[in-house]
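Contributing: when you submit paired examples, paste them exactly as shown. First protein:
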Amino acid sequence: MKYLDEYRSGDVARRIAAAIARTVKRRWVLMEVCGGQTHSIVRYGIDRMLPEAVELVHGPGCPVCVTPLEMIDRAHAIASRSDVVFTSFGDMLRVPGSNGDLLALRSGGADIRVVYSPLDALEIARRNPGKKVVFFGIGFETTAPANAMAVHLAKREGVANFSMLVSHVLVPPAIASILDAKGNRVQAFLGPGHVCTVMGLSEYEALVSRYRVPIVVTGFEPVDLLEGVLLTVRQLEEGRASVENQYARTVSRAGNPAARELVARVFEVVDRKWRGLGTIPRSGYRLGAEYRDHDAERVFEVDALTTDESPLCISGLVLRGLKKPSDCPAFGKACTPQSPLGATMVSGEGACAAYFHYGRHPDAVLDPGPKPTRGESDVL
């Protein structure tokens, strides 16, 4: 397959769905790890194409969703200072903290700018030596190399007014946390294609060896996802557990060695709090000792700031695969994308936001999303 339309072909999708139906003999619970996969599954109705015996549940794979509320509040505390230019990708400006979002703070006069790369933020620091320029560095391993490069260059060039508020999280420890949790239902995973493009497969092979669960690294288009489900179900039905690479057009076993080397040089692995899941041991990055002068939490002394999550939100149960968004009493009522209570509603890639936008609840307003490009509407 060479072209996008082929990954959205209705004929191919139906053939794979039929192969899944022929293969499955028992009930299985699969979790897709990435929020982009969740969005595609709900948008295209992939879960509704599967036989009843195959259930898809939605994992903690949206970095905006799992950024803890206290980290948003730390961003607000830094961004509200008159001597700071606070920079971020656009999606983080809409995530509410305890007292509104960064967009509201900007409307009140704070110098908050949307950038398209951490290197853009570094350039702002070079041009504004009298200001303290901060970049909000969030994400999984996918975005870590670019963030590491920005900090590495700032140190090498002596750009002392540039710092990064780091909230990086790592996928493999989150998978282990789900499998270790009491009442776990997940029996196999659709692995995160973009993360594995950077990190490769070795960490997932270690998980398979430890837990004996299949992990199929999968892309994001409908055909990718259905093929990933088929490969996973075959393993489960045959009693096998291995790492398979459905996304071979992008992912290699070694990943990107140069990117991995840079990340290991700049960051160190630490315990990290996840919104909705709590603290997971050794599940995040922070800047290593050599780069601490560029650590915004240290520079602005905000690392002690903590915030409690809403008690009404069941996002932790959703992220562990124990509940669906529509099981939450607040879903579509007290909790909407305009006024989210928890992790899975704060971003368009969160499971609750996807269910809301695509009408998976009688009280939700159906949002058809972007107009399909040629071939998208052929999937169902």
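Second protein:
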Amino acid sequence: MSAERRIDEANKKVMNILMNARPIWKDIQQAIDVIPGMTKQTVLIPGPPIAADRLPIPLKTSVCGAVIHEGLAKDMESAWEMVLKGKIRVEPAQDHDCSCAASMVTSASMPVFVVEDRIFKGRGYCTLHPGLKSKVLRWGFYDEEVEKDLQDLEDPFSIVLGEAVRKSGGIDLVTVLSKTAGMGDENHNRQPAASMYLALQMLPYLLGTMHPEKEAVIKEYAKNHRFFLQVMMAGVESITTTAKKVPLSSVMVGMGGNGMEFGIQVAGTGNTWYKTNAPLVLGIFLDPNYTKDDLLGYLGDSCVTEVYGLGGMSAIAGPAYVHTTGSTIEDARDRTERARAVSLGEHTFGKIPWDGFRGYPVGIDVRKVVELNILPISHGGSGLKTGGQAGAGAAEIPMECFLKAVAGIS
């Protein structure tokens, strides 16, 4: 059998996983109790591996904040010294079946979603979305106020939600995507429909919890229209952890940026990163005084949802997001058609009414990207070099990542 044929056969196995997996949100637990390889001295970051002394300011702040949060240091200076001396392991979250949105990091005591794929039995993890505040660890801020919010996420927020989801028996994320198809979510940067549907499924069980602060938790949870994002990130991780065990496959199963570099992973080489300089996410600024010079490169793992066909890959499903970032419905359609041209299939559960009831493209083959010279476009929030969100928009996934990936599987 030729090398090309062997890769094709491997890709069929990965496509079976991507298209038939059923990720179920089952629990919320502390990271150290569930994430493979997690230790008290480990901090997981978004994107590919990076030397500690190259961490951009927002990630440096988040890492040091997490070290303080874990009680390992008293202040930012001593926390940073521990990082530079190697006393803290700073590693890519996606190498641990976890993912970190924007400048968020994951440390031992933080609560994480636990999502299990009912079919192939993989598990994935992600921290909870912190709500609609702008001053959060997720965007590279840390002080006493942020620390208080982190503590509140641990108790009461994760305690109440964890009890409720366990009582529910688990929430099927494919069902959420199916029920909300045609409601305008692209489910990376825009997911109010999915978040609200998820809240409706959770509400009866939330009301049945016994925690004295459950009412405050329900109010905070119900107003977070972005809550579903990080549940889905954990869901995708539960799928890709299985896909990464298929040798020779050229299907992309990981992607993310650390602000300095952007990388992708393919199933056939597992946790190997193929990386290059991080592109800028361009679109709309939250403050008209910002310019491109203020932007950090692509930052975060939330684009792992696009491995599953969401976000920029299914941009036509969320034309309102594309419009708010300064682009057009024609741009949205073009982004989805680009993804279809280099993908090996379409999901059957999320058909888009205004796109001829076609499904989300899934299974980007790095060989097709290089052969056709068609670059998929990713959605994302843009970060400021000094910390905070600059805006939102889109970025082409760099060709250099795909060229290196093709060489890696050859």
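If you have annotations for the second protein, write them as plain sentences, like these:
The chain is about 40% helix and 20% strand.
The chain has a mean pLDDT of 97.
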